From TrEMBL, chains A, B:
This is LacI family transcriptional regulator. Residues 4-58 form the HTH lacI-type domain. It comes from Pseudarthrobacter humi. It comes from the Bacteria. InterPro entries: HTH_LacI, LacI/GalR-like_sensor, Lambda_DNA-bd_dom_sf, Peripla_BP_I. It holds the Pfam family Peripla_BP_3.
Length: 348, 348
DNA sequence: ATACCTACTGGAAGCGTTTCCATTTCATGA
DNA sequence: TCATGAAATGGAAACGCTTCCAGTAGGTAT
């Protein structure tokens, strides 16, 4: 089988190449009869248009790049699922760039891949791109959407991490807690991904506003995983003497780690220790975790939809036209405060 | 900036297009001087070759497709990380097809995407492709590697699930357990992904070989998540009367769900209930989970390396040559029995 | 019947590379 | 000095589509 080309289809259908192309891609100015003829011939030959030839000729790729710092953690895999589903349904390919913890990869991804005119658009998750980098992308007319990270000049979907962290802390304060600890992200995670610092700032703001001291030894850090936070929380909770009565963890995974550590010490949650998280991890339900639910998957889906919209709008020859979405929108994604039973009034 | 093309580079360097192309792609038969000239000119102009034009002309895509049924579960995200890292380092793109639980997507992915000549190779994770589907891919000279699923005719990386499940069960039997329960995967997961059934068969084989009865009510199913297994295990452990003394879960995530459920009932692990899992989930350490460690990430990396190798071997114009890797290898990936402290001699 | 407009159609020019092939250059040994 | 082959070079033909543009048919109004 010599992989039928459009020429073969045209011959078989008794039409010209041009007409077949129009017919198969659903363009106007094709008679119903021709269209049907073309489709039938294409089916019979099992014709599938060559992606590269079509992209080269039309300038459209039907391919969106997704840049993530990791794929293992709940937040990222949720976003990927959301993006992936939406894109697949729209007939778009998803090219995944998992830049991981290696910064040199990040550079090569931006240069060697993203700029290679092979992507129609880019979704960057929790990645802080420099203005130069953003401009580079915009210069070649590639719309960008950032999720969970501030992208100057590009459209963004995010939640107000500072405010929500503050809300979470205030929930604990409101219950009467004064001895509140915080589990934040590790320093290196703060590099491309300022989130831990922002949530921590929210925590500190709430504490200060309430006139509560922040004990440095009660601010510990972990790597955003359950097991990492478990280890950190064990240190935090080790000595009965200087033990907090509540913990605000910067993610649900870390909150769960704290709950597990607490259980190991025979501490009951919430009677002996209140724990509040942030994210909306599915596993939170098992632990009755009080948290602020953000629909990461939904955020991914929304980002994809936004991109598809601007792509459809700017249709034909994106290289040429004016930059799509001159207006960079900054949407705040809705969240939900989910009170379950990992937080309560302190027993003392 | 009009996005410099190779023509511009050639003009600037005072060379022909052909020589520039050879120089930049590191081909032979280019003088050192010309090569340097070309590189300098390319740098100055910020030239990046057009992916589509280059693929169209050369027939090589530098793009590997990865088909997964999900991205959220530990096993899959681990594999994706492994594949992703290896591919990125080799300068390949990764196109992710998350077919999810919707079978219609699977079909469209195979037809509309994979066959569109845009992929050099395909890695299918835990997906059972029909022989027709495999032949379709092989017919257009696209090497396939399957991970964790049997792909007749294609290369495969897998672990011997049946034997390992048997080993896990034998570990419990060897400790003296007779009342052994099994948490398997749900029926619908068994469709494209026979794994739950295979592990279950291993369990049954071990039990039968030991002359132990399998109590149907002690074989429960869950969706491979912690929370799902937690719910199932609660049912399993609810009545003190007919309670097993050991549980073999078909995945670490489900084993952890069982441990959490046991704790809720005040059962101590391993004194009151032994739990063994399978996979090597990072979280297993926190729970002291005895398991069989399979390096999912390593499997992904290996699959990518295998593919890259055959691609490099078959170099130039893969469309034309003989099918790469006529020899479909079926490798068994090494595993490690990890005895921690979630299993012990039954206390009765 | 003629003019005119519209809906279709097909030829052919790109899209931006890679690579074949013929040609030129250059070093080497006789 | 000249033949000889290897190394380097450039022209031009693909690669397989999309789309512009000119042209053809077929219908309507005059």
């Amino acid at each position: 089988m010599g992989l039928a080309g459009i020429k073969d289809v045209a011959d078989r259908a008794g039409l010209s190449i041009a007409t077949v192309s129009r017919a198969l891609s659903g363009k106007a100015n094709v008679s119903a009869k021709s269209r049907q003829l073309a489709k039938a011939a294409a089916d019979e030959l099992g014709f599938v248009p060559s992606y590269h030839a079509s992209s080269l000729a039309s300038g459209r790729n039907h391919n969106v790049g997704l840049v993530v710092p990791s794929i293992h953690r709940w937040y990222f895999s949720s976003v990927v699922e959301g993006v992936s589903g939406t894109l697949l349904d729209a007939g778009y390919d998803l090219t995944l760039y998992n830049v991981g913890d290696r910064p040199e990869r990040r550079h090569s991804v931006l240069n060697d891949f993203l700029l290679r005119k092979r992507l129609d658009a880019v979704i960057a998750v929790a990645l802080v791109l420099s203005e130069t980098e953003i401009n580079q992308l915009l210069a070649i007319h590639r719309p960008i959407v950032g999720i969970g990270g501030a992208l100057a000049g590009a459209s963004t979907i995010r939640i107000d991490d500072a405010r929500l962290a503050r809300t979470a802390t205030e929930h604990l304060l409101g219950l009467g807690h004064t001895r509140i600890a915080h589990i934040t992200g590790e320093a290196e995670l703060n590099q491309d991904f300022k989130l831990p610092g922002i949530r921590r700032a929210g925590f500190e703001a709430a504490m200060q506003a309430a006139g509560r001291a922040i004990r440095p030894e009660w601010v510990v850090s972990a790597d955003f995983t359950i097991q990492g936070a478990y280890a950190s929380a064990r240190h935090l909770l080790a000595s009965a003497a200087g033990r907090p009565t509540a913990v605000f963890a910067a993610s649900d995974e870390m909150a769960i780690g704290a709950i597990l550590a607490a259980r190991d010490f025979g501490l009951r949650v919430p009677q002996d220790l209140s724990v509040i998280g942030m994210d909306g991890h599915e596993l939170g339900e098992v632990f009755g975790l009080t948290t602020i639910n953000q629909d990461a998957r939904g955020q991914g889906a929304l980002a994809a939809r936004m991109l598809l919209e601007t792509l459809d709008a700017g249709a034909k020859r994106p290289d040429k036209g004016t930059p799509p979405s001159a207006a960079a929108t900054d949407r705040e994604y809705p969240t939900e405060f989910l009170v379950r039973n990992s937080t309560a009034v302190p027993s003392t």
